[in-house]
Amino acid sequence: RPSQYAINKIWAQAYVEMDYFTRQGCIHTSEGSMSSTTDTLGITNENRKIALKVVVIINPLKNIQQDNQLTWGEISQARHTFLQTMEGVGMTIWSKEIVESFADFFTGLDEHPIREEEYGDEAVVEYQTWA
User: Fold this and answer.
1) What is the Cα–Cα distance from 25 to 44, expressed in whole angstroms?
2) Rounded distance between C-alpha atoms, residue 107 and residue 76, angstroms
3) Looking at residue 54, what is its pLDDT?
4) Measuring CA to CA, how many Å separate 104 from each of 69, 116, 118?
5) Distance between CA atoms of residues 18 and 110, nearest Å
6) Is 42 helix (H, G, I), strand (E, B) or coil?
7) What spatial distance separates the first Cα and last Cα of the chain, rounded to whole Å?
């Protein structure tokens, strides 16, 4: 399972590195590599009264690689968890059509003939990074 930080990024429709969705990224999450604290207080409005509430701060994982530092194999494996996470946050955030568009994008890269050429996988990784 990806980190809560990555899930929150998906929820917010913000960019998140694919490394969060690789096996290694999910292992980092399960090992407790996520930084959080429970001694931070935030102000909230409850029943028209201002109150202090404990806030959990979720920080990015350390050692997460940028997309262009991953191999195509890592990105290809991570895409499944990435797409499942998009579906998991609900269709109110990511419509079925958008999730399918992402799936088609990854399939198109997977099947692209440039991958047969020398440095083809690297080219596909670089394209995916910027697209």
Assistant:
1) 33
2) 9
3) 64
4) 22, 19, 24
5) 15
6) strand
7) 25
- HEC string of 44-97 equals EEECCEEEEEEECCCCCCCCCCCHHHCCHHHHHHHHHHHHHHHHHCCCCCCCHH
What b-and-e string marks burial along 97-121, b requiring 16 or more CB atoms within 10 Å of the CB? eebeeeeeebeebeeeeeeeeeeeb
Neighbours of 6 (CB within 10 A): 27
Backbone region of residue 57 per phi and psi (left: phi > 0; alpha: psi in -120 to 50; beta: other values): beta
d(CA 127, CA 110): 12
How many CB atoms within 10 Å of residue 65? Answer: 15
| Cα gap 85→16, rounded to integer Å | 12
pLDDT tens digits along 53-88? 666 666 777 789 999 999 999 999 999 999 999 998
Q: State residue 80's pLDDT score.
A: 95
For residue 89, the Cα-to-chain-centroid distance in whole angstroms is: 12
